[in-house]
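Reference record
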Amino acid sequence: MKQIILLGFWALLAINGHAQTQFLQSGKIEFERKTNTHRLYFSDPQNNWEQELKKLIPQFKTDYFELLFTPKASLYRPGRESEDQSNGFFESPGSENVVYKNFETGTSVSNKKVFEAKYLLSDSIRQLEWKIESETRTIAGFECRKAVTRICDSVVVVAFYTDEIISSGGPESFGGLPGMILGIAIPRLYTTWFATRVELISDGEARKINPPSKGKKGTQKEVLDKVDDAISDWGEKYRNKAIWFLEI
């Protein structure tokens, strides 16, 4: 009799777990974005000025973002404040990014700060060519599988996604995998995004998933062209990093 009860108990757990997997379609994810500031800004060991300045700057900068999502849309925006002290000029790029995706229409609206001006960018949702690999890891309690793609032709992006969350979204402009992206690493930008927790949201919170509306209107390409012209004399190393951060 005890064996029958125990078998029934474990069967009920399995059914409930399966149901949660199937119905986790709406929720909120907190992402911790961590940037190695020393590697991002101070890459020349022979530059004495860089090495002295590096001593005054914390090695890592941590920012938090949240991603609200439903089957129809998602909204990525700044989250809770970090305990890190401000680095002034050496803030991580894109710390104020807001990205809205409408999965039904295939469109995206983002708000990005560029040279003290905020732009409102309207485009189609980015389509990336992902290569899914066999490696897995657990992130925020979800089993995730590795996938790799490239942006700007040569910048490798490593992602970890879970098919236990139905929405094909992720942080920033990333998505397009068979499930939600819970981890991103871009080695050439010395930056990672990893989910710290996933929770359900109420209908009221789901109704807050709306596109941003303030900023100078344009497209991603138009802003990239303006930035490219403005920083053409920065040198290839710094110019490339600025463009790559705008492309995420």
